[in-house]
Amino acid sequence: MRDKLIFRVCFDFLLFPTHQKCVIVLPWIEDYLDHMLTFDESLSSSGLVSSGNGKNNFCTLITCYHFSGENIFCEMKKAIRKEILKIRDNIPQEIRSEKDACIKKQLFLMHEFFSAQTILFYASFRSEVETHSMIEESLRMGKKVVLPSVDKQKHALVLYELKDMKELTPGYMGIPEPSVSDERIIDINEVDLVIIPGAAFDYSGNRLGYGAGYYDILLSHRKKRMPIIALAYEEQLVDSIPAEEHDVRVDMIVTDQRIVSAKKDFC
Questions:
Q1: Residue 22 domain-assigned?
Q2: Is the Cβ–Cβ distance between 70 and 18 less than 8 Å?
Q3: What is the spatial distance between Cα 107 and Cα 253, in angstroms, rounded to a whole number?
């Protein structure tokens, strides 16, 4: 049976060079560790980590393992995603509705929203922050609303203008998508404001999506500066998310309690 070093710590992670010993701070509960970390059974008993207070009452686990560097980010992201989505899914519907109303109110008062004419929304699905009422009100305000549709063959998001909520039909994975002609295709550079979903976010604007990278690919084609705003429940904020070069960061995160401006330098 493998020994584990368990501490209550600030949510963070430490990485050593590829193929060397790694120390990882994992935000999950102890009985979940054995299920997830199956890539290597060898444990290093060495390693020093400072103690502190956990974020969002996480009892974080620090475990020293030997494994190849290419697996580090992948495994860490999977772990964070699973834990935060579990928390998000468990928010009671009554509380979720109150949170949704707070987020909508804050978003609609933002200068970035008020001044944008063409807005890329997402059609909320499962336990995501609800956007259908936001889309309907934006249409009534005369804004051009754009929604993504997944092109699985090209592994890309195709953007379409939506003129009526009745034009939404279940698409990829059951997610509502526009069912309209290609005459309504919109280029990402025609968009004034991007409103984006995600599993988790940190205070530097790093975003953890659902694992397919569709939004990172889409937003890599931007040729102009446009605000990227994430909608999230307060429970989806963490202190640190492992980020790679291709990961697109958000500018602001609107939660049910506040608006977080990402700590980063804009280009």
A1: yes
A2: yes
A3: 10
